[in-house]
Each structure stands twice: as C-alpha cells, then as structure tokens.
Design a protein that fits this description.
By secondary structure, the chain is an alpha/beta fold. The structure holds ligand 2YC.
C-alpha cells in the first residue's frame, strides 16, 4: 500500500465536480453510481442512508502522522455523495470519542496500516483496499458497458487487486491475474487464470486493472489499441506517453472511488 503524501491530494477537493464530470464521461456513471455498483446497493438505498447516517472522519497522528488535507478531502468526497460529514476537532481516541458523542454512526479513520469505515449501528467495518478494488472494478465495467463474458487482466494481487478480481468474477467476467510475486500468484482463485508473462498478457487483454504500487512500467506499445484501464495503484503504472494516448480510457484517482465505495459498503 502506497502511503499518500500531501501533494497527492492537494487541490483535489475543489476539483471534485470536474473529476465527477470526467468520470461520468468515461463510465456513464457518477461517483455515487460507481460506489453503489461496487458496494452492491441501490442509489435509492444510498439516498435513504444519507438521511439516516452522519459521518465523522477522525485524524490519526500515529506512525508517520497526519497527512495534510487527507481527512478534509475524505469528508468532501462523503459530502459529494449527499451525506453530512465532519472532521473531528480532536485526533485519535479523543477524536473517536468526539465523533461518537456527536452521534455520528459512521467513522472513517486511517493509520499507516489500515484505512477503515466503521458502522457503529451494524458493527460493519470496511477496509479501504476492499472498497477500492470493488469500486475500480465497477468503474471499468461502466467504461466497458459491462464486462460479463469479457476477459480482464488484473495486475497486482494484493488487497486491492484481489478485491477487484473478486468483483469482476461476480460480474461474470473471465479474470486473469499477473503478479511479480510468486506467493501472491499462488493465492489466485481456481476460476482465475494465471498469466506468467506480463508483456505478453498486455498485448492480449483489452480490459486492465492496474493494482500495483509500481509506477510507469507500461508504455503505449505494450497495450492493445482498444485498451481500457482502471488504475487504483499509486503511482500510475502507465508512463506519460501511454497516459497521453489512452487518457480518455484511464480511470485513476488517489481516494475518490475508494472512499465512495467504502461508504456504500458500510451503509449496505
Ligand atoms: O491524516 C491522517 O489521519 C493519517 N493518519 C492518514 C494516513 C493514511 C495512510 N494511508 C495511505 O496513505 C493510503 C490509504 C489512503 C490508501 C492507501 N494508502
């Protein structure tokens, strides 16, 4: 898991509307619709939950400490989905206490190991990796206008990649996996195809999930002309020329889809 830095999220809060317009153009879905698809809930149920739940985001100072703008951006994504969301004044346990006392029943908080959404009413806890994988799977399906029966290559089989692969199987896609780590390749499910050679695989598959922490390992000549890429991995795996060529068919963001899908899963 790549730890974000302040610069990864600087300015994104005020660009959230533009971000959502681009998402809509690429996938035909807005942020709430992507989240609901990944979270297996209806927009109606999400709207109902927005009337019934309030959300607190708690800054956590442990480990490498607070990331500037992180909790504020998380709260703005949650507000974009129609929920009331506040960042607590206090941090850590005092912040958690403050959030609960103000009757927020959904708590978002992240230390250096885990980023979670906790539903105090249903005791459901959602991990960012799980939410991000499902959300980007749903975004790719939107871009492809459905992935049932289509072959999809998942690059990187960590928490995000394995979750995306699971979502794609549920959507009826044929899933293939490449991971440079043999051990992780062994964790792939029986109905997932293992692709031992990434360069060969990139020349075959039109639908890709880049769930690696590797940056700039994919060049334009590696990809098929029809390629569509959902890239939750930070930094982006496509190099600059590849991003330039495929930008209208690339979905990549540091937090928006992951946080939105965590919320949909937490209230579902
Ligand atoms: O500002 C704070 O409260 C910090 N404790 C937040 C630390 C987040 C560390 N995790 C990451 O940077 C990201 C996750 C958001 C998803 C993957 N890495």
């Amino acid at each position: 898991m790549t730890r974000l830095v302040e610069n990864d999220i600087a300015g994104l809060e005020r660009e959230l509307d533009v971000y959502e317009e681009e998402l809509l153009k690429k996938t035909g879905l807005n942020l709430s619709e992507v989240a609901c698809a990944g979270g297996n809930i209806t927009i109606h149920d999400l709207r109902k939950a927005a009337q019934s739940y309030r959300v607190a985001v708690v800054p956590i100072t442990s480990g490498e400490g607070v990331i500037g703008g992180f909790t504020q951006f998380v709260a703005s994504i949650i507000r974009k989905m129609g929920f009331q969301a506040t960042v607590t004044e206090e941090t850590d346990v005092a912040g958690f206490y403050e959030g609960v006392c103000q009757e927020n029943e959904i708590i978002f908080m992240a230390d250096d190991k885990k980023f979670i959404a906790l539903n105090l009413r249903t005791k459901k806890v959602i991990d960012n990796g799980y939410g991000t994988g499902r959300g980007f799977g749903a975004a790719l399906a939107g871009m492809a206008d459905g992935l049932a029966g289509r072959e999809v290559l998942v690059i990187g089989f960590g928490p995000v990649g394995s979750s995306a692969a699971e979502y794609l199987l549920e959507s009826g896609a044929k899933v293939a996996v490449y991971d440079q780590n043999e051990l992780r390749m062994k964790e792939t499910k029986k109905d997932m195809k293992q692709e031992p050679n990434l360069k060969k695989a990139l020349k075959i598959y039109d639908f890709l999930i880049d769930a690696t922490p590797e940056g700039e390992f994919i060049s334009p000549e590696d990809l098929t002309d029809q390629a569509m890429i959902a890239a939750p991995g930070i930094p982006l795996g496509l190099n600059a020329p590849a991003f330039e060529k495929y930008r209208d068919r690339v979905i990549h963001d540091p937090l928006q889809i992951g946080v939105a899908t965590m919320l949909a899963l937490a209230v579902g």
